[in-house]
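Saturday, quiet lab. Running sequence design on the structure tokens for the scaffold JK sent over.
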């Protein structure tokens, strides 16, 4: 399998007896995760005793931008399929490439360490997701509040208008009696 960013052959690295990753060890140092493998490794407390994984996660990002930032990458498993990019972390610090066909994910150099640093545990992940949902809903809630205030103001204006007209009629009747 070839690296989607630099076309160097990927090397299979065993993390545990039932988990192996494909890494670009001789090129850009990105990592390929088959479907669901990233979810098995994205919290810092998962496979914390794996020295290989800690070495990979600690790998610093290069000074220049990762190669995969330039254009949509092709999936190394599925010929001819372009991967989509999305924010993987709630803080929008890590953007990953994912294949819509096989579900595999590509992380550039240093991104696994940033993901694991953000999600120290499953509880951190849940809190991050909750913050992300709140951030998504906050503008809608503010817009709804503004619309409610505007509707209330229009209603109050109509009430004042009706009250003013009724008061004008009462004053006119009183003036007629006098």
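Result came back. Writing it out in full:
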């Amino acid at each position: 399998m070839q690296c989607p960013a630099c076309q160097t052959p990927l090397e299979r690295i065993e993390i545990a007896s039932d988990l192996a990753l494909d890494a670009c060890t001789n090129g850009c140092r990105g990592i390929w995760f088959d479907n669901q493998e990233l979810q098995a490794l994205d919290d810092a407390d998962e496979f914390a005793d794996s020295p290989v994984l800690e070495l990979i996660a600690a790998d610093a990002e290069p000074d220049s931008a990762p190669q995969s930032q330039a254009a949509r990458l092709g999936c190394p498993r599925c010929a001819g399929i372009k991967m989509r990019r999305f924010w993987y972390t709630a803080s929008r610090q890590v953007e990953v490439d994912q294949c819509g066909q096989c579900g595999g994910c590509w992380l550039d150099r240093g991104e696994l360490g940033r993901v694991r640093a953000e999600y120290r545990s499953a509880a951190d992940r849940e809190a991050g997701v909750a913050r992300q949902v709140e951030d998504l809903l906050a503008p809608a809630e503010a817009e709804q509040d503004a619309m409610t205030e505007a509707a209330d103001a229009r209603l109050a204006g109509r009430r004042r208008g009706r009250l003013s007209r009724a008061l004008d009629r009462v004053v006119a009747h009183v003036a007629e009696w006098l």
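Notes for JK: Residues 122-177 form the longest helix (56 residues). DSSP finds four helices and six strands in the chain. Ask whether to fix the surface positions before the next round.
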